[in-house]
Amino acid sequence: MKTEKINGAEALLKSLVNEGVEIIFGYPGGSIMPFYDELYNYGDRIRHILVRHEQGAVHAAEGYARATGRVGVCVATSGPGATNLITGLADALMDSTPVVCITAQVISSKLGTNYFQEADTIGITIPVTKWNYQITNASEISGVIAKAFYVARSGRPGPVLISLTRDAQVEMTEYRYEQYIPPVQKFNEDAEHNEWLCQDVAGMINGAEKPLIIVGQGVIISGAENQVLKIAESGNIPVISTLMGLSAFPTTHRLFAGFAGMHGNIAPNLMTQQSDLILAVGMRFSDRVTGDVSKYAPKAKIIHIDIDDSEFNKTVRSHVSIKGDASRVLKSISPGVKYRERPQWWSFIDDKRMIEKERIISRDLTPVRGTKNISMAMAVDALARIGGGEPVVVTDVGQNQMFSARYSKFNKTRSMITSGGLGTMGFGLPAGIGAKLGVPDRQVVVITGDGGFQMSLQELGTIMQSGIDVKIMILNNSFLGMVRQWQELFFEGRYSFTSMDNPDFMKIASAYNIKCARIERAEDLDSKVKEMLDCKESFLLEVVVDKRENVFPMVPSGAPLDNIILK
Amino acid sequence: MKKEYILEALIDNQISVLNRITSAYMKRQISIESLKLSKSYVKGVKKVVISSHTTEEVIGHIVRQLNNLEDLHKVDYYLPKRNNHKNTTDKTGY
Ligand SMILES: Cc1cc2nc3c(=O)[nH]c(=O)nc-3n(C[C@H](O)[C@H](O)[C@H](O)COP(=O)(O)OP(=O)(O)OC[C@H]3O[C@@H](n4cnc5c(N)ncnc54)[C@H](O)[C@@H]3O)c2cc1C
Ligand SMILES: Cc1ncc(C[n+]2csc(CCOP(=O)(O)OP(=O)(O)O)c2C)c(N)n1
Questions:
Q1: Mean pLDDT on A199-213
Q2: A184 in reach of chain B (CB within 8 A)
C-alpha cells in the first residue's frame, strides 16, 4: 500500500490526533514555525490555547491531565521556549503527572554549533523527565510519538519531552500510524500481583484492632476510589489522605478522618502513631507525611501498595509490599475484608476530632482577634459551604494551599489539583486553566496567594483570549505567608524580605476584562463567594486576609507526628 | 557500610539512557570509580558496567529506580569479587 507523502509537521499533527489529543497548550517561535503553519489547517481537530509563558503551557497541561486522567500536551519552540518548560517538567515528575511536551530544535546539521536559539534540551531535561527523545528524521515521528504517549501514561505516569529538529518538521515522509507495543517483560510486570498475599492481607486487616487506610495520589491515578470505599465500608475502617490523595475519598463520609502530615488534621497524625495496621495505597511516605521517619507509626504493621517498587522501604519500612495497580490489588483484597465495630478505636478518633474542632477549627473560623477581618480558613470554608463540595479546587503553594487542603470539601474525585512534591508557586492559575479546558462542565476555582498569583498572572491574558470560565480567589495577606510563618516560628520573627507591596488587583483584572471584586470584611464573604460562583464567566475575587495568620496544627519539619503545635 | 559495588545494565543504543544512569549517581553525590560501555551479544543493546563506593541500601535503591527506565532491559548490582553473580535470573537471555 502506497501512502501519500506529508511533511513531518503534519505527521506530528496526525499522530496527536491519533492519540486522541483535542487540546494543546503552546507558544510559537522560530524553530517550531513549520509545525504552527500546519496547525493552522488543523483548527477543526485540535484546539490550540495560546498561553503567555511556556511555564504556563506545561502547568496548564498538568492541570488538564490531573482533572481528566488523560495526557496533557504542550508545545514550545527551541532554546528559551524549551528552557521555560523545566519547572513544569520537574513538577510533573514529582507529582507523577502524564504530560507530553514537544519542543522544536535547530536544524540537525547545526546541532552543537551554538546556532541561534539552540539549547541542549535533551541534556537539560534528562533529570526532569520520565523519558525524552530527539527526532531528526520525519520517518521517526509516528513511532516516537506513540511511544511518548505510552510512556507518559503507563505505570507510574510522568512527563515526556520530545525534541523535534526543524528539518524533521519540513522533511517529507510516508505517514502510517503505528501503535506502540511495549516490551513483553515490562508489560507483564504491571499485570502481576500476588493473589494469595492479598488474601493474607485481608486476614491481617480483620485481625487488627486499630486499622487505618492511607490514600495517596496513586488511588486517583489508578481509578481505585471505589475499591477503597468498598474496603473501608465493608471493614468499617477509617480513611486518611495525603495532600495529593485528597478528593479520592469523599470528605464528608463518616469514615473519612482527615488529611495527614505536617499541616494535617490532628486525628490522622495521632491515629498513625497508635494504629496497629496501616494499609497505605498509592502514596510514597513523603517527608511531609511522615515527619521523623524513625518514630513514624511505631506500633503498626504497614502494608504498602504501589505500582513503583522503588518506593518500597525507601523511607518507611513496610511489612508487606505489593507491587501493582492499586485498583487491581484492592480488588483482590476486598472480598476477604470483614466488618468489625472497634468502638474503642472509633472513640479515640472522635475524641481527637473534637479536640481539633474546639482548639483549632473554631478559632480559624472566627474573625481574627475580635476584628471583622476575614481569615484564610473562613474564605476556603465559604467556598466549601456554598460550592457544596462540587467545584474543582486548584491551589497555588503556601498557606493558601494548606488552608485549601484543610477546609475544602470534596464529593468527587480529581477535585483537588495542587503542586505537592515540588511546591511550585505560580502553578495555580495556569493549572486552573488547563483543568477547566479538561472538564468544561465543572466549576473550577483557583485559590492562590498574592505572591504565587504574581508568578503567573500573565495567564489572565490566556483566560481573556480563550474566553474560558475560571474563578480565581486571591487570599491576599500582603506577605509570602508561609515563609513569614516559618520566620515567626523558627527565626525569631526576623521577617527578612517576605512582605509584599502589591499592585491593585482590581485594576489588573479589569485590564484583562475579567470581572472582579475585593472584600475585606467577614460580612461580605458569603455573598461575594456566591456572586463569584454564580457568574457565568471568569471572576477574580480578592479576599483581603489577616497578615499574621498562621496554619495550625503543625508538626515541625523532622519532628515525630505526635509533636503537634497548636498555636 | 560503604563498599565497592558494581552495577551492570543492558541498555538500548540511545543517547540519553547512559546519561540517566550516571545522573542517578550524580544526584546522590556518589562518584563513579570506573565506567565501561561495551557491545552485548544482542545487536543494538549495550552493556554498561559502573563501579562506585556506596552502601547496599543506596545501590539497591538506584537499581530499583533505574529498573523503571525506558530503553533499559535489565539492571543489577553485585560485589566485585563474586564476579559472575547475578541477583535475578536473566529472563531475556542475553
Ligand atoms: C507547602 C507544602 C506543604 C505540604 N504539606 C503536606 C502535608 O501536611 N501533608 C501531606 O500529605 N502532604 C503535604 N505536602 C505535599 C507533599 O510534599 C507530597 O507531595 C505529598 O505528601 C505526596 O502525596 P502522595 O504520596 O499521595 O502522592 P505522590 O507523591 O503523587 O505519590 C503517588 C504514589 O502513588 C504511586 N502510584 C501511581 N500510580 C499508581 C497506581 N496506578 N497504583 C498504585 N500506585 C500508584 C506512585 O508510584 C507514588 O508512589 C505539602 C506540600 C507543600 C508544597
Ligand atoms: C517558585 C517558588 N519559589 C519560592 C517558593 C518558596 N515558598 C513557599 S511558600 C512561599 C510563600 C507563598 O506566598 P503567597 O503566594 O503569598 O501565599 P501564602 O503563603 O501567603 O498563602 C514561598 C516563597 C516556592 N514554593 N516556589
A1: 96
A2: no
DSSP collapsed to 3 states, A211-248: EEEEECHHHHHHCCHHHHHHHHHHHCCCEEECCCCCCC
Q: A215: pLDDT confidence band, cut at 50, 70 and 90?
A: very high
B67 touches chain A (CB under 8 A): yes
Instruction: Supply the range of the domain harboring residue A16.
Output: 4-175
In this structure, the strands spanning A99-105 and A72-76 are parallel
Q: Does the structure show a pLDDT above 80 at B15?
A: no
pLDDT band for position A125 (cuts 50, 70, 90):
very high
Contact A156 B68 (CB under 8 A): yes
Tell whether the model's pLDDT for residue B85 goes beyond 70: no
| Each residue's pLDDT tens digit, A1-22 | 567 899 999 999 999 999 999 9
Q: Tell me if A17 is assigned to some domain.
A: yes
Between these two residues, A38 and A188, which has the higher pLDDT value? A38
Residue A449 resides in a domain:
yes
Q: What's the rounded Cα separation, in Å, for the pair A109 and A402?
A: 50
A485 falls within a domain: yes
Asked if A469 is an interface residue toward chain B (Cβ–Cβ < 8 A), one would say no
Q: Give the residue from chain B lying closest to A155, CA to CA.
A: B68
A281, A259, A297: which is closest to A334 by C-alpha? A281
Domains assigned to chain B: 3-86 (3.30.70.260)
Q: What domain count does chain A have?
A: 3
Distance A96 CA to ligand 2 centre (A): 22
ipTM of the complex: 0.82
Q: Is A481 in the pocket of ligand 2 (CB under 6 A)?
A: yes
Listed residues A175, A201, A220: the one ending a domain: A175
- Judge if A416 and A319 occupy the same domain: no
| Shared-domain flag, residues A317 and A449 | no
**Residue of B49 and A4 predicted with greater confidence:** B49
The CATH number for A91's domain is: 3.40.50.970
Residue B47's Cβ-count burial label (10 Å; 0-12, 13-18, 19+) is middle
Contact check, Cβ <8 Å, B20/A126: yes
Q: How far apart are CA A198 and CA A195, in angstroms?
A: 5
Domain with residue A300: its CATH number is 3.40.50.1220
My answer on whether A271 and A342 are in the same domain is: yes
Do A166 and A201 sit in the same domain of this protein?
no
Residue A438 is classified by DSSP as H
Please indicate, yes or no, if residue A433 is contained in any of the structural domains: yes
Polymer length in residues for chain A = 567
CB atoms inside a 10 Å sphere around CB B9? 23
Give the model's confidence band at A198: pLDDT under 50 very low, under 70 low, under 90 confident, else very high: confident
Rounded Cα distance between A382 and A385, Å, is 5
